[in-house]
Automatic annotation (TrEMBL):
This is Response regulator SirA. Pfam families: TusA. NCBIfam families: selenium_YedF. Residues 5-29 form the UPF0033 domain. Belongs to the sulfur carrier protein TusA family. InterPro entries: DsrEFH-like, Se_metab_YedF, TusA-like, TusA-like_sf. It comes from the Bacteria.
């Protein structure tokens, strides 16, 4: 059996996510993943090593790479990962809080920062252990309102039980109080309470 995932032209982390989805349905065979840059090769190779599917990469031409995964569940590939998934009735990780304080990720180019943040929020939806709570304040408040490119991803998290909380003061400051489309409004006391009680806080 051979499967092909064409992830050329897709931004991070989509090549990894598409490869992971394809692996889940495979018992035995070869998964071929096509990407168009070396960073994607490295990320997909890491997935293959993590899943134990003997990844091999080859550069076909400029801007064209191929990664092969040799899948054989009978020999133990991915068995433990599959068992873990079956034992997780609730995908949320207790005490894990994601903090989004901007609608951009990192410093530098603003357009790139927004692209990276969109990718970060999407990646949150694909974690095997989701955060218990997502806190949005300052510029991060723009992510949960009408017109946000991350709105559907935040709605997906909420549908899986993740608490989405946006700073009310921030919404008022940016005149967005009537445009909140996911989760609920929070205050600084609750933000501090959630962060101080967290076992792990992640932020882009």
């Amino acid at each position: 059996m051979e499967k092909i995932v064409d992830a050329r032209g897709l931004a991070c982390p989509q090549p990894v996510i598409k490869a992971k989805e394809a692996l889940k349905g495979m018992e035995e065979g070869i998964l071929k993943v096509l990407v168009d840059n070396e960073i994607a090769v490295q990320n997909v190779m890491k997935l293959g090593n993590y899943e134990g599917v003997s990844p091999v990469s080859e550069k076909k031409s400029e801007g064209e790479f191929e990664i092969l995964f040799h899948v054989n569940r009978e020999s133990g590939n991915m068995v433990e990962a599959a068992k873990e998934e079956e034992c997780l009735p609730d995908a949320r990780k207790k005490g894990l809080v994601a903090v989004l304080s901007s609608d951009q990720m990192g410093g530098g180019n603003e357009e790139l920062g927004r692209i990276l943040m969109k990718g970060f929020v999407y990646a949150l939806t694909q974690l095997e252990e989701l955060p218990e709570t997502v806190l949005l304040y300052n510029g991060g408040a723009r992510l949960s309102v009408e017109g946000s490119q991350s709105l559907e991803d935040l709605k997906s998290l909420e549908a899986q039980g993740v608490e989405i909380l946006t700073c009310g003061t921030c919404l008022n400051f940016y005149e967005l109080a009537d445009k909140l489309k996911v989760g609920s409004v929070t205050n600084m006391y609750e933000i501090v309470e959630k962060m101080s009680g967290a076992r792990l806080v992640i932020r882009p």
